[in-house]
Structure formats: structure tokens, C-alpha cells
Amino acid sequence: MDGMDTADPTAPLDQLRASLPADVVETRPDSMEAFRRDWSRDAGAGMPLAVVRPRDAGEVQATVRWAAEHRVPVVPRGAGSGLSGGASAVGGGLVLSLDRMRAIDVDVATQVAYVEPGALNAEVKAAAAEQGLWYAPDPASYAISSIGGNVATNAGGLCCVKYGVTADYVLGMDVVLADGRLVTLGGPRIKDVAGLSLVQLFVGSEGMLGVITRVVLRLQPPPPTPATLVATFPTTRSAADAVVAIRSATRPSMLELMDAASVNAVEDHRAMGLDRSAGALLIGRSDAPGAARADEVALMEKACAEAGAVEVFVTEDADEGEMFAEARRAAFPAIETRGSVMLEDVGVPVPLLPDLLTAIADVAERHDLEIPTVAHAGDGNTHPIVVFDAADPASVERAHAAFAEVMAAAIALGGTITGEHGVGRAKKAALPDQLGEDVMDLNRRVKAALDPANILNPGAVL
Amino acid sequence: MDGMDTADPTAPLDQLRASLPADVVETRPDSMEAFRRDWSRDAGAGMPLAVVRPRDAGEVQATVRWAAEHRVPVVPRGAGSGLSGGASAVGGGLVLSLDRMRAIDVDVATQVAYVEPGALNAEVKAAAAEQGLWYAPDPASYAISSIGGNVATNAGGLCCVKYGVTADYVLGMDVVLADGRLVTLGGPRIKDVAGLSLVQLFVGSEGMLGVITRVVLRLQPPPPTPATLVATFPTTRSAADAVVAIRSATRPSMLELMDAASVNAVEDHRAMGLDRSAGALLIGRSDAPGAARADEVALMEKACAEAGAVEVFVTEDADEGEMFAEARRAAFPAIETRGSVMLEDVGVPVPLLPDLLTAIADVAERHDLEIPTVAHAGDGNTHPIVVFDAADPASVERAHAAFAEVMAAAIALGGTITGEHGVGRAKKAALPDQLGEDVMDLNRRVKAALDPANILNPGAVL
């Protein structure tokens, strides 16, 4: 399924233009350049035939119908903040950008939001908050990532250790299928088992099965203001041991780990008051109600102390707590300034987190590379970031080897090559190693059943 | 996809027998009778060729391989407590009963349980509790229903208003596919987006896509002991209004409704101290920690009072509270003693619950039938139970009409024909009305991709 070599080079783009408002189909070189890659900076991204920026589902249907007729690949794209190359353009294909479709309609009584895919996560959170409600999922990129992308990758985030991932909040969706039909799956019902779980099949499908044009998201009353705990440890391993101990007793509302390299990268980029001397940092939160909050924080403090924490700091102040969460979220952009990067997203069962972090450090040392690591530690999901010098072929080669070895280490520990970013194009070489040939075959069968001509995001994942 | 008329009537059952231990393939008439129907008492259930009761995944594979070779339908079956005819035998096919596969292995550190499909929900709860952990999902049938059936139907229950449904607790599974291959999907990782969400596709697939031979279930520390609130209302509508008000402010750990007819049915069957004069009863619970529990109970009390509750009773005593939950769970068996029954499972967005209950009462009155109704009210999911006289053709006809009209009413309110029981055979006639032809087509395509010969549970759902 690699690429699509059947694309018609003479596909009549004028026909598509004629069926859509004048400014929907863009072919200016600067547009093409701006829309043909996501944050993974995929060097293999192709040059698209055009960027299509529809304003409603009908325009999406017209685009997909034209593409199906002429066998032109379609790569759906949200805000382009993806980290695995899931939205890399396919040469000669269309980039179908949903960035103009961003309506948000909150139904307070039903506690749901109807959201178009281009709306940013932060915009949904804000719209819900205006009505006294809360949209929980919070990928670190929430300020810049779209809901469509969040749903297409089943994005995680910082609060999922307690509140779950994007999938847990998607009750329904409208999808344009590979033949241009528009269907509605699920809806604003909390429980619904009528037919196969197609809503959940489309969540995390990375644009391979259809183009999501609207989602129904579950909202809830906001949780109490959290208390935030910051603990410094002599080593990454001792911090990871604390995580395992905390998670065996409770599910805090956040439990993030930063290793020494990522702490220093953040401080180098923008001084945020983190302890540069720490071997590792844990940022934990409790939003348990009332007095239970103090109990949960005390439990986390005790676990940190027993695991060898050097210092534990607790604040009930929301702004101060948010500053630490912000420091954690700043890790990607900070580390990106240190060189070229390859972003990892490997995960393991929580008790194996210390082993995974040790394995990552071994890989870094063996290949003489800096691999700063931050982690949604409470879920066993880590983001080692391989930093390399793109101008030095030897460094590039070592980086590729390290990237592959980190995934292999996760698989060897019974883990996954991607916990929340998706496979995209960056990780597809390793997918069979995790899933095995029979499960790859199942994936391909489902893909072929819904997109027999392989129009939708060809070359991604499979 | 109705039935399978291609089954080979001369399929060499001896060949299957020879490939399995002597007692695995049963053909005695009493076995056939005991295993060919679930709790829905489907009059259309066929007479199977044999009942196969394997002890491990290898024996399941041998059975499915033989069935695939000879095009013999296979109906997987857990404990037979299904309410929609999902496990009705197909004439000339195999009933594949998983009741002998019931190993439970709790991994305390990872907070998961590896469970074979025949283990009862209650057995999993007990095994988790022995290790200080909790398996949350609690269908009313938890004492008699199997985990395999819970997963195959994506079973709900009483606690899902706060804790979610079975799908939220399934991290992975082993499945025997239609061609006999055994695959492992997902695993004990909290976050994993490698490839399509096949685990979630198999959850709720009602035996149509594969035979589940093991699941990985998420466990968690147990919640605090709940406080229980019981409120009586003059009318069903006022109780439903209280539900809407409570749910707009919080997610209690239980919020069940019983109408007057179901209260009286339970009391007739076994006196449990419920108020027979009540127009409707709400049973709510809070398991919020510490002082937050009293706050949440007070909030529920206030909402009940404002909606017109006649009396509100609160107990912090766990046994007393459990008695009320037990009375709610007793509704099905109690109502079953009143005549023949057709069990409904319709749901709507929570704010429309009062309208749905009014519509159900209208249907009952119009057809001169008793339709006692209990509801997982906090989720908008109701169980109207159509009681009729099987010996009276007119009564049977009216019951069928009422059953269809209740589903139509739910669909008209933007709801679902099944919130947690599954479509099975009892509701498949109404499924296209809810999903529409395009979504039915999607269901069929996925089914055909995974089971091209339509061996697995043919005639169910689609």
C-alpha cells in the first residue's frame, strides 16, 4: 500500500475547481509548501497536486468524489501538529485541510459539543468552559492541535492518567467515506451498542478510513482546582520507581516525568525555575474533591520520599501549578531548538517504566546521542526525543538506528511503538514488529473494506 | 445474511470429535436443549448439530477451522444470560460454549486481569477484590453473566454513569478469527494507538467477527464505600426530571429509576421494603471521597425535592444501600414471573429521558399491556419490559407491536434501540431504522472483511 502509483497525472483539477467555490482549491507554491508537512518535518513528503480547504461537509464530499473518480490520493489534515507524519502530502495527491471547518456548538443540557474537525482543542475547552463545562482531553499540543487530528490519532495528554484519552470522549461523528458518501455514526447518547463499534474504529484511524467532518464530544462538570506536586530525584530510575508506587495506590490527575536533559533543555530555552541539578523531575497533580485532595497529595509525597526524592514541593495555587505543567509542555519546542529531532512515543505497562527508561538511556549512550525524555509517566507512555545533526550523515545514521532501537526496546518489554501520536509514516516500518503479520492482515482487510481503491491517506500506517 | 443455507448437512462431525477430547463435542438432546437459547428465550432458535465446549484456545481453533472448512455456522456463547438472542443456536450449526474456559489471572502490579471468556463477571470482581483491586463494570446480571458475553455486547450496568461501560476496561484480547487463526490485539498498556482500534471493534461485535478466548481487563483501586439515596416520586416524569437535574450537576456512582409497575413486581415476587405507593423510585449513590460524599448526596437530595419527591431516604450503611441496589437488580427476574416478556433496552440523550418514559407509557396504554420499566436513568438508558400472555395470540401481537413502537419512539427522540444488551436477533429488524442504509452497509463490509464466508453467528445483528 505504499504511496499510490496509479494516480492519474492528468487528473482534471479544473473540474474539481469548478465544483467548489473559487478559493477552496489552492495551488500556489507557498500554500503547497505550508500544507504539505506536519510537525514531523517528513523529508519524504511529496508535492501535492493541490491543497483543498473546504468550508463544509458538502465540499469535502465533492472533493472526495472527484478524487475517487480520478484515483487521486487524499491526505486529510487538521492543524498540522502531528508528530508521526500522518499528514505528509502524497506526491500528485490532494491535501485536504480541514482548517476552515471549525464551528463549535455546545449543548449544555446534554453535556456534549458538536465540533468541526478544524477547531483547536483549546477552542473546544474554552467554549465548554464558557458554559461551565469541561472537555477533558489535553494533549500537550492542545493550544495548537485540532480536534480532527486529536480524534484521528486518538490523542492522549497529561490528564489521561485519570480521565482517559480522546476515544473516551467521542460519542459520535459524521464521516465522508472513500466513495464520497456522508454518514453519521453514534450520537449524543452515552450508551449505544447498535451495530459494530464503528465510532471507535474511526477514532485513531489516521485518515485511512474516512474524512471526519464533525464529532460529538462528551463534556462534564469541571473537576476541582488541582494541587500540584513537584519532586526532584537523583536519577530517572528513582523517579520512575516513585511513579510505579503512586500508580499502584491511586490515579492522580497528572503524573509527568522529565529527565535531566529535558529539564535543562527547557531552562536553556526559557528560564522557568526548574531545578537544573535534578536527575529527574516528577510533576503530579490531585484534583480529588475537598479533604481527599490533601490525602492523595500526601500519598504521592510519601511515595516520592520512599523512592529517594531529594525535594518535594507542593502548591495549592492554580497559577503556580499551571506553570509547572507549562514547563512540561514546553519540552518539545525547547528540545527542537537543539538540533534536528525524531520524536518517539513508546509505552509499556506501568511497572516496566523504569526498565524502559533505562533502555532508552542505554540506546543514547551506545549511539552517542542526546535523547531527552519526557513522559506521561502515570500511563507508562514516554517521549524520548532523539536529537541529531542533520548536516552530519553519521549523526543522521546513528539517530535512525537509535529511533528504531527505542521502539524495539518497547516491544521487547511488551509495549507499544506509539501510545498517542499515531504511526503515520515515521513509525510504519516498525508496526509489523509490534503487531505481527496476522494483525497487520486484519488492519489491511478493514482498510480495504472501507477504502478499496486506497484513496485515503495512502502510505500512512500500513 | 439471514441464517446460513449453505451449511453442509453431511458435515463430518466425527472428524471434529476426533480432533478434540472426548467430552468436548456434545450431541445429547438435553445438552442441545440447555445450550441452544439465551435468556431471551428466542422461539426462532434452531436445533444445533452439536454443542462444543472447549477447554482452551487451541480447541476453539480446531472447532472454528473445522466449521470453516465445512461451512458450518458457529454461535459463540458465554453464560447464556443475553437478553437479545445474540446466542440463539442456528439450525445445523455449532453452539460454541466458552463456559469451561474461566481462568482468571490478576496481575497486581500492572492492575490488569487476564480472563478467559467463560469466567463470570462476579468471579472477576471477586478475584480482583482478593488483591485489593476493583473491576468496575457491573451489569445487573453480574452474578450470572460471563466476561466473554459482557465484552461481546459491550455490557453496561449500574455504575457506568460514573465509571463507564465494559469497553472502557478492555485493554486487549486474544481472538480466534473466522479462519481459525488466533491473534492477540492490544495488551496491558494503558495507551496504545499502533494500528486501527481493533480491540474496540471486537468489543460489542456480538460474536460476528471472532471468538474471544482471553481478555485483558483494566483494574483499579476500589472506590470508597458509597452512600445510597432512595427517593420516591408521585410520577415517573417527576423522577425523570430529578435525574436530568442531578446529571447536569454531577456524575453519581449510580442513578437508577424504577417505575410503579416494576416496584410492585419486585415486591410481589419478594418483599424488599420498597414503597408500593410510589409513582416512581430513584436509587442514587455517591462514592465521592470524604466530605465530598455528603456534598454530592445533598445535591441529589435537593434536586429530588425540587422535582417533587415525596420522600428522600439516605443511608451510609453499605448493607442497607446494597439491599436497594439488589431490589433494582431483582426487577428482571421478578417481572419474568408475571407472564412472557420481551425485554427492551432503549436509550436517549439524558435530557430526553422524561419524554422517552412518557412515550413508553403511551405505548403501554395504547396496546393495553403492562410495560414495567427500570432504567439506568443517569445514562438515559431504559429497560421497558413488555409483559404478555404467550397463550393469547392477540396479546402476542400487541406485544410485538409495542416492542417495535418503543424502539421507534427512541429513534424518533434521537436515541438507540439498544444501550447495552446488543442487537442479537430480537432487535435486528429495527437496526436499519436507527442506522440507515449507508451505516448498515459499513457494518456489512467490516463483517465480510473479517468473516467472508459468514460462519460466525450468522443471522445475528445484520
TrEMBL record, chains A, B:
Residues 44-222 form the FAD-binding PCMH-type domain. Residues 1-20 are annotated as: Disordered. Signal peptide: none annotated. The keyword Coiled coil does not apply. Its cofactor is FAD. Keywords: FAD, Flavoprotein, Oxidoreductase. It comes from the Bacteria. InterPro entries: FAD-bd_oxidored_4_C, FAD-bd_PCMH, FAD-bd_PCMH-like_sf, FAD-bd_PCMH_sub2, FAD-linked_Oxase-like_C, FAD-linked_OxidoTrans_Type4, Oxid_FAD_bind_N, Vanillyl_alc_oxidase_C-sub2. It holds the Pfam family FAD_binding_4. This is FAD-linked oxidase C-terminal domain-containing protein. It comes from Nocardioides lentus. The lineage of its organism: Bacteria, Bacillati, Actinomycetota, Actinomycetes, Propionibacteriales.
